[in-house]
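To: structure subgroup
Subject: Chain for Friday's discussion

All,

I'm putting the inputs and outputs inline so they're searchable in the archive.
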Amino acid sequence: MFNQNRIYRLFQLINYLKARPAKSVRSIEAFLETSERTAYRYLDLLKDLGFQIEKDSKNKLFIAATSELEHIPFTPQEADYLKKLILSAGKENQLAQSVLQKVQQSSEIELGADSLFKAHLAKIVEQISVAIIEGKQLLIKGYSSANSQSVTDRLVEPTCFTENYDSVSAFEIKTRLNKYFNIERMTSVEVLEKPMKYEDQHEFYKPDIFGFQGKSMNKEIELEMSMRAYLLLKEEYPMSTAFIKPIPDTGKYYFKANVQSFQAPGRFVLGFLEEVQVLGSKEFIKFIQKVVKKNT
């Protein structure tokens, strides 16, 4: 049976290897603060659990985004121990409760690795909540940036979560900017003893359904689309679902929402020109026409 520290290290390693760029064995050693031999043992354990660890052209290691473990069998004793670990994340945490429901279904449980990972995310959410409530600075460890393709630590002052708890709004001390940090891209977090001291610079700009943030959602999007376009929009931007309605007896779907930027919805429309009709706004139509003209 795994001990608590081993389970936590597996969570860390899964997140670390899923985040780009790929990692060398030496960097994995440093990350886990262990020996080369022990690092290989953890890698072998992940392989035994069903994860496909791949190598890039420079022999650096990574876990493909689609690599996912189907089932891990646990004995009744292991299930009870896992239950206690998950409860340590906080009984009121929705992610923890989701996993607990699966743990309690039977003594011979099968717990997916994705659910295990969500329990780890629940612990991160819990720690961020403590920092917000107590007004403490937070160190985000091993944050994977989609823009710079780097993994770095970030010192921040967290302000609040997005509605679905997938990101946290925080003031980054180094850049003096208010940013959104995706929870899944965090390896771990540490609540520091230092109190917040930049609260007068804290801002919270609620992101639109495409993930863009700004001071006002004053740009309107109105579309009519095919079922295929609708399914892809919903899959790529789940928050768009609440703004989509089926058009009776047509097999098509209607979408209307206010957004911060035309950039993301513009890319979507341009990728489905034959399956999406832009109904408005006039400003958005002009934006699409301008991009099409520029690329022809």
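Points worth raising on Friday:
The chain has nine helices and 13 strands.
The domain at 219-294 is CATH 3.30.70 (Alpha-Beta Plaits).

D.
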